[in-house]
Amino acid sequence: MTSAVTIPRHGGTGGRTAVAARARQVLKAYGSGETRVVALDHVDVDIARGQFTAIMGPSGSGKSTLMHCLAGLDNVTGGQIYLDETEITGLKDKKLTQLRRDRIGFIFQAYNLLPTLNAIENITLPMDIAGRKPDKQWLAQVVDTVGLSDRLRHRPSQLSGGQQQRVAVARALAARPEIIFGDEPTGNLDSRAGAEVLGFLRRSVDELGQTIVIVTHDPVAASYADRVLYLADGRIVDEMYKPTAEGVLDRMKDFDARGRTS
């Protein structure tokens, strides 16, 4: 069985929404023989450019594996992953590292900030390592979008958890990547700080034209997205556009109920 989900046509244009990343018949398996476990089962999916996509599903559904494969952080067993028109499956390590550095941004649950650097130094660190100068106008716009203008000279220990995650968001945005992936980016935050970070992610899509994909288990986090993809047993089994927290929660309860009766 395959899972095919494509983004819809916009009415009146006659063409499809631009695609930032796509998976074609992606298979990810671990082990062999009787111990073989299939994490992704021939998944087809398009990620729309300039939109916010959330990936959800129960533990073991393959949601994090899908994000890691789309981001080039994990190899696939079969199928193809494309970033725009570039196939990333099969790229040599050096080329893949360069692609991730130059074209993909990452936001992780643990922030991953260097304690000896202040906020602005953490934000520009990936570009400094790559020997690239930041676009000052863009950097100022990103800093303003995430509300960090008055905290740039503070080190991580002087920032709250929400502020640290905003630094991580700004770091991902600052290099102007084609797509940003977030793995439970609000998982370590309280509800207020989480709402702030999610609001900044939403603004980065609406105001800066960014493409964002997050993995989350939180219906409230998913409600900030344009589209929610639901995974179960390594397949995309459903999707929701213009989600609400209540709608997402109801859908997840429905999946849980199916799992108990199957």
Could you explain the architecture of this structure?
One of its GO terms (molecular function) is ATP binding. By secondary structure, the chain is of the alpha/beta class. It has a single domain, classed as P-loop containing nucleotide triphosphate hydrolases (Rossmann fold, 3-Layer(aba) Sandwich), CATH 3.40.50. Helices cover 36% and strands 26% of the residues. Helix 3 runs parallel beside helix 5. 40% of the residues are buried. The N terminus is likely disordered.
Brief digest:
The chain has 262 residues and is an alpha/beta fold. It has helices at residues 63-70, 93-103, 119-130, 136-145, 161-174, 191-208, 219-222, 245-261; strands at 3-5, 19-30, 37-48, 52-56, 78-83, 86-87, 104-108, 179-183, 212-215, 227-232, 235-241.
**What is the domain tally?**
1
Structural class: alpha/beta
H/E topology pattern: EEEEHEEHEHHHEHEHEEH
Name the CATH class: Alpha Beta
* Percent of residues in helices: 25-40%
Strand order of the largest sheet: 7-8-9-4-10-11
Number of helices: 8
Q: How many β-strands, per DSSP?
A: 11
Q: Uncertain runs with pLDDT below 50, 5 residues or more?
A: 1-15
End-to-end CA span: 17 Å
Largest sheet geometry: 6 strands, mixed
CATH architecture: 3-Layer(aba) Sandwich
Rg of Cα set:
18 Å
* CATH homology superfamily name: P-loop containing nucleotide triphosphate hydrolases
Q: Averaging pLDDT over every residue, what do you get?
A: 87
Q: Strand-residue fraction?
A: 25-35%
CATH T-level fold name: Rossmann fold
- Shape from CA axes? globular
